[in-house]
Specification:
mainly alpha; 206 residues; 0% strand; elongated; 9 helices
């Protein structure tokens, strides 16, 4: 698996935090390309000069937006995994429960996965925010694979089966987020959780 480099980050002053809070709301609600620095500055109550003094470019605002979102998601998920039962299948399902809770916490403003949405607009690997998008998905796949290893322990083919199960769980999880963002049918995350539970039962009995 290829790896991606860590993006440059900035030290956040109070003004920078206001800019970032405004950018987070606008980028997630409207899209990254649709939101300009004039609007971000106006929403944050700062001048464009202050915005550029703190961030240097819109690209760096995007980096901070996605990196902050990624950090919050990982912390949120870690907390729920720490509280989950030790039984291997329960820990996998806790990831789906965390995703459902994360989505519900955003209420009617939820528009699916912020990283997937960002990737629809940022597919150029040279963009400084690209490593954050890809890095989160690599991290999620590695997490599902590690959790799958505990489900399929034992046997000469356990490692291969864990990789396959991890990928299947990842596809269910990410597909559910995309379906949720599109609103094409009710409760895709709940449906994905049920399908994951079926896969886990089959894997444990194999």
């Amino acid at each position: 698996m290829s790896t991606v480099s860590e993006p440059r980050r900035i030290t956040k002053t109070p003004a920078a935090l206001r800019v970032l809070a405004a950018a987070e709301r606008l980028f997630y609600a409207r899209g990254i390309h649709a939101v300009g620095v004039d609007l971000i500055a106006a929403e944050a109550g700062v001048t464009k000069k202050t915005l550029y003094d703190r961030f240097g470019s819109k690209e760096q605002i995007v980096v901070e937006y996605l990196a902050g979102r990624d950090e919050r998601w990982r912390a949120f998920l870690d907390e729920l995994l720490d509280a989950a039962p030790a039984e291997p299948r329960a820990r996998v399902l806790a990831v789906f429960d965390a995703s459902l809770a994360w989505t519900r916490s955003q209420g009617s403003q939820a528009k699916g996965c912020g990283m997937v949405n960002a990737h629809a607009e940022i597919s150029d690997a040279s963009h400084p925010a690209y490593p954050i998008i890809i890095g989160q998905k690599q991290w999620m796949l590695a997490l599902f694979t590690r959790l799958a290893e505990d489900v399929v322990r034992g046997g000469a083919e356990a490692a291969e089966r864990a990789v396959s199960l991890g990928r299947s769980l990842m596809l269910l999880h990410e597909g559910a987020f995309v379906a949720h963002g599109l609103g094409i049918f009710p409760d895709p995350l709940g449906r994905a959780r049920a399908e994951a539970e079926r896969l886990l039962t089959e894997a444990a009995g194999a």
